[in-house]
Amino acid sequence: MEKPNIIFKEVDVPQDLLCDNGHVAPPYYKRNGYNSEELPIRFWHVTGSGINKTICEPCMTILNYILHKDKHGK
Predict the structure, then answer these.
(1) Where do the structural domains in the chain lie, given as residue ranges?
(2) What residues does 45 pair with on adjacent strands?
(3) What contacts 24+ positions apart, CB below 8 Å, involve 21-27?
(4) pLDDT tens sequence across 19-67
């Protein structure tokens, strides 16, 4: 089976914080877990394999979890 070619590129944060997944992202995100410092939110443009979206950091975290789970079966 051929591996999908998905490209991730960090982009500027939209002024309205609107994620293409249909919600407004929070302005800050605890990137390193629950007890970590809140840092300014980041956004990525994701393309390939039928995808062309700009998504927020929480959505990217979920996407990475799903991709890892699918790849490693855990």
Answers:
(1) 7-72
(2) 9, 54
(3) 21/53, 21/55, 21/56, 21/59, 23/56, 25/56, 25/57, 25/58, 25/59, 26/58
(4) 999 999 999 999 888 899 999 999 999 998 888 999 999 999 888 888 7
Q: 10, 43 in Cβ contact below 8 A?
A: yes
**Two tokens, residue 53:** 């979206």
- Asked if residues 55 and 21 have their Cβ atoms less than 8 Å apart, the reply is yes
Backbone phi, psi, residue 44, to 5° = -130, 145
Other CB atoms within 10 A of residue 59 CB: 20
Asked if 9 and 44 touch (Cβ cutoff 8 Å), the reply is: yes
Whether the Cβ atoms of residue 29 and residue 38 lie closer than 8 Å to each other: yes
Positive or negative, the CA dihedral 34, 57, 61, 19 is positive
Q: Any alpha helices (H) in 1-74, and if so which ranges?
A: 57-72
